[in-house]
User: Which sequence fits this backbone?
């Protein structure tokens, strides 16, 4: 992630944009004779891209420079695509755009300047950006209001799925901005060409506000492919709740903000067959379901060992069918033996408490089993250490930006 690309400098850019490149200011400046490249009267103004340039890459910045004077305002107008924001240098001699242009768009750059004698002039330039053969969009972004709620646990990753495979990972990561009210070190991680996820090096601090800015409109995703739109997401990290359990000790211990709040007898997977072991590792609560229909894995109706059972008050912890759930039939073994087919069995009373007091993204850590949770099994993001996580990041680690 670019260091500080949208930090305090970004706030300065917005302030300068309001003062220096807003609409409606052109009529306040008398027009001089200067055109693109300057003129006989006033400051000499130069443009990049050059006047009448075609096929300009969308991520090429627009730069306007003045010699023999200062820029008063600059506007880069893309018609229906809207203006490009930008920032003016402290000495007023250079303006640079701070956003990605839209593909297939004609832009007009208008710069007002003042020379050393106080004479004002206007210069203009035009360019067109490269055309898009296709666009890509964000298909889903998690967390979200409908699936997880907007207050989540300290282990919650940010997960983005695209509607098409993308190949220009650097361009995309550069335009994925994470802000937080408490600073963390974090990084994006590509699972494949359609999925990129973000997590901090350590768990999120409790009660942190987070904003994700996917500034992808016009961003190159691959040859001839450009982002369709920008997406912004705000969410909050709740209290810190971490649950730990051992398949050897048969107990779940729930700690909230460091204090033990509940001890829950449990029964884990009975083993024997690999599929009947509960996975060891750092799981995350993925869903809370009042009822779930569970079916025997790999066994069809009429075959020995087949079952189909409705269970209640379930918290999903992997994609391989593992839940923490109510199991009245195994209460006698909870706290002393492992008798399940891989789930974590707890009593009905404890299951009602657990589902009520769990946030999506809460860590649920199981130890003692020989079967390890795979990083791609559900939200096994924390199964990779930091070095492993960074291996699949294009821009590596960086601090979040202040919110």
Assistant:
């Amino acid at each position: 992630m670019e260091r500080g690309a949208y930090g305090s400098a970004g706030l300065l850019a917005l302030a300068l944009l309001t003062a220096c490149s807003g609409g409606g200011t052109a009529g306040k400046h008398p027009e001089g004779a200067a055109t693109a490249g300057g003129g006989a009267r006033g400051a000499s103004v130069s443009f990049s891209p050059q006047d009448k340039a075609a096929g300009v890459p969308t991520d090429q910045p627009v730069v306007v420079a003045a010699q023999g004077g200062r820029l008063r305002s600059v506007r880069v107008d893309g018609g229906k695509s809207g203006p490009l924001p930008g920032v003016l240098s402290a000495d007023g001699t250079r303006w640079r755009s701070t956003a990605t242009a839209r593909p297939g768009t004609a832009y007009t750059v208008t710069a007002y300047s003042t020379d050393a004698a106080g004479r004002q002039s206007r210069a203009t330039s035009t360019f067109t950006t490269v055309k898009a053969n296709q666009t890509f969009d964000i298909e889903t972004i998690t967390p979200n209001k409908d699936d997880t709620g907007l207050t989540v646990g300290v282990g919650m990753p940010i997960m983005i799925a695209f509607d098409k495979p993308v190949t220009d990972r650097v361009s995309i990561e550069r335009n994925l901005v994470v802000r937080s009210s408490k600073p963390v070190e974090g990084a994006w991680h590509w699972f494949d060409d359609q999925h990129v996820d973000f997590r901090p090096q350590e768990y999120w601090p409790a009660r942190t506000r987070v904003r994700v800015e996917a500034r992808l409109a016009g961003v190159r995703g691959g040859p001839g492919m450009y982002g369709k739109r920008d997406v912004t997401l705000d969410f909050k990290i709740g209290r810190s709740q971490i649950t730990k359990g051992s398949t050897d000790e048969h107990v779940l211990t729930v700690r909230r903000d460091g204090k033990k709040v509940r001890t829950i007898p449990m029964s884990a997977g009975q083993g024997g067959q690999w599929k009947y072991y509960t996975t060891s590792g750092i799981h995350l609560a993925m869903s809370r379901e009042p009822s779930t229909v569970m079916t025997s894995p790999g066994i069809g109706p009429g075959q020995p060992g087949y079952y189909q059972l409705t269970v209640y008050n379930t918290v999903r912890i992997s994609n391989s069918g593992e839940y923490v759930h109510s199991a009245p039939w195994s209460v006698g073994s909870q706290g002393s033996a492992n008798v399940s087919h891989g789930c974590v069995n707890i009593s009905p009373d404890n299951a009602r408490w657990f589902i009520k007091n769990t946030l999506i993204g809460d860590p649920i850590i199981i130890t003692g089993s020989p079967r390890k949770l795979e990083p791609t099994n559900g939200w096994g993001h924390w199964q990779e250490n930091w070095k492993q996580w960074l291996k699949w990041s294009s821009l590596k680690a960086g601090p979040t930006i202040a919110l």
About this structure: The longest strand covers residues 106-115. The CA atoms of residues 332 and 359 lie 28 Å apart. The chain has a mean pLDDT of 90. The first helix runs from residue 8 to 20.
